[in-house]
Structure formats: C-alpha cells, structure tokens
Amino acid sequence: MPESVRRLPSLNGLRVFEVAARQLNFRVAAEELGVTQGAVAQQVRGLEAELGVKLFERLPRTLALTEAGRSYVAHIRRAFELIAEATGTLRPEPQHLTISVTPTFASRWLIPRLPDFTAAHPDIDLRIVANDRIANFQTDGVDLAVRHGRPPFGPGLHAELLFEHVLVAVASPLLIEKLGRPEEGANLGRYPLLHDAHDLWPPFLEQAFRMGPPAAAKNIRFNQTSLAIEAAIAGQGLALASRLFIEGDLAAGRLVPLFGRELRGGSDFYLVSPRKPRHAASVNDVRQWLVSAAGRGQALA
C-alpha cells in the first residue's frame, strides 16, 4: 500500500467531520448520520488528535469552524465529490425517462408489460405519468407520450401510429348466461350500458341494429374506460372498449365479444415525442420497445 494512503485519517472520521462542519451542531449531525451525539463528538476529537489540529471552536449553543477547519473541510468535500463521481462512472445511474399516458392505457396495457421492458432495458428508469391532461414536453419534463387523437399534434413533434382504435362490445360470460345474448331478440333491453368519457355506444348500436336498438335497462357512466371494463368483468353490464385494452380478458375468458362487429373510433393511439429529444438514445429504445410490443399484439391473461 502506498505510504500516502497509509497516512490517510479515518474515512469515517472525515465523513462525520464533513457533516458536523455543515450542520455546526453535533446533535443535528448525529441525527443525520443515525448515531449518538457522543459518537459524533468522539469521532471529531479523534480526528483532531490524529491531525494535531483543532477543527472546531466549541461554543455554548453551536460550533464554529477554525481557520484550519474551514480550509480542510473544503478539500474534504471535494474529495468526497471525486469519490462519488468515480463511483458513478463505475456504476452509472439508470437513465431517467418520463412517459405520459392516459390512466386506462397505463393500467390496461402498459403496466402489465413493464416486466418485459425492465428485463430488456435495466439501464432505463421509466417514470410513468398517467393523466388525461395532455402533457407539455417542455414544462412537464415529459420525454415521450402516448396520445389518443389524430396528427398533427404540434410543431416540432414526431408522431408514430401505435394502435388503431378498434372498439368491441363485451360482457361477462356469467351475465350473458343469465340475461341471454344482447343481440338476440329484445335482450339488449335487459342490459345496463357502461359508458366511458368517449360515449360511443350510440353509433355502435346504430350499426348493430339497423331498425333501431331497443332501450337499455339503464346507463352507468364512468370517466375512465378502465372503470367501465372492470364493471363489465364484474358482471354489471355491457362495456364498449378498445380491443387493445381487453386482449388479456378476452383470452382468459373474463369477457366475451358480442354483436359480431367492431367500430373504428374517430382517432387512434400515437406515440409522440419531440423531434429533438433530450435523451435521444433512451427515447429511441423505449419507442422501439413500445412499437415492438404493440406489433406483437400479445394477449396477457
């Protein structure tokens, strides 16, 4: 071991000294370090004895750094910064990337697939902001967004089709067994219709019943599509949902498609990002993963 390294004082003592110099109070320093006030005082005394220099003036209610202490702590802080930088280079922090999505997209599609993303990209710390409000890429610190709409979405933004908005009417198989298939006879009148904020039941039923649909038993309205889907799974009525949100439920038999038809929504799901993103490599990795996952169209049971 080099002689210069052997002459170094205790690193633990230096750490305690730096905290005490910042707090100028042994009790507060002890709280930050999670040790007793006596242990802090002992470490500082030991360091002063080892250096042969007085680092603090002990005043009645506080501490004051001596001239030697002020000079020394500046160098010690820089040394700790160098250690932190070296450690960060050796073990880099994950790249933080924020994606803005709707609550339904987050709960019904993205979150179930996150383990696949984490396995493929352990170096990216993905932060999900789920909100119906359209995020601003500059002021909200968003790097990528999944938006339900039609391009263009704004100047300086790149948009790529992720999913077509294809709507399917669904219900619990237990409810169908109890009330009969809603497309047969007057059975639709026995079913509550579960609406979301898009309110696309009227055009769907006009397609399904050329002679005009019978009145539903009642209408239940939700502000989130995910809530209407959960209500349908629980047997509370008929839901009209984007196929991408119910793939797993259809595959597992929790929901059954009805009417033998689909409705194209007036808008689709797009992946949107600035043309000049802040973290271009990470944004590209997330974009490619999302497009790949959407293209596979895998159902999750």
The stretches of 5 or more residues where confidence is low (pLDDT under 50) are: 297-301
The top level CATH class name of the largest domain: Alpha Beta
* Cα separation of the termini: 59 Å
Kindly report the average pLDDT value.
87
Q: Would you give an account of this structure?
A:
The chain is about 45% helix and about 20% strand. It is elongated and about 100 Å long. The chain has three domains: about 5-90, Winged helix-like DNA-binding domain superfamily/Winged helix DNA-binding domain (Arc Repressor Mutant, subunit A, Orthogonal Bundle), CATH 1.10.10; about 95-165 and about 265-295, Periplasmic binding protein-like II (D-Maltodextrin-Binding Protein, domain 2, 3-Layer(aba) Sandwich); about 165-265, 3-Layer(aba) Sandwich (D-Maltodextrin-Binding Protein, domain 2), CATH 3.40.190. It is built from eleven helices and 13 strands. It is α/β, with parallel strands linked by helices. The strands form three sheets. Strands 7, 8, 9, 10, 11 and 12 form a six-stranded mixed sheet that branches. The chain has a five-stranded mixed sheet with strand order 4-3-5-13-6.
Keywords:
D-Maltodextrin-Binding Protein, domain 2, 3 domains, alpha/beta, 301 residues, 6-stranded mixed sheet
Concise structural overview:
The chain has helices spanning 3-6, 11-23, 26-33, 37-51, 67-90, 103-120, 173-179, 201-208, 225-233, 243-252, 280-296; strands spanning 56-58, 63-65, 95-101, 124-130, 144-149, 157-163, 166-171, 192-195, 218-221, 238-242, 256-257, 263-264, 268-274. By secondary structure, it is α/β, with parallel strands linked by helices.
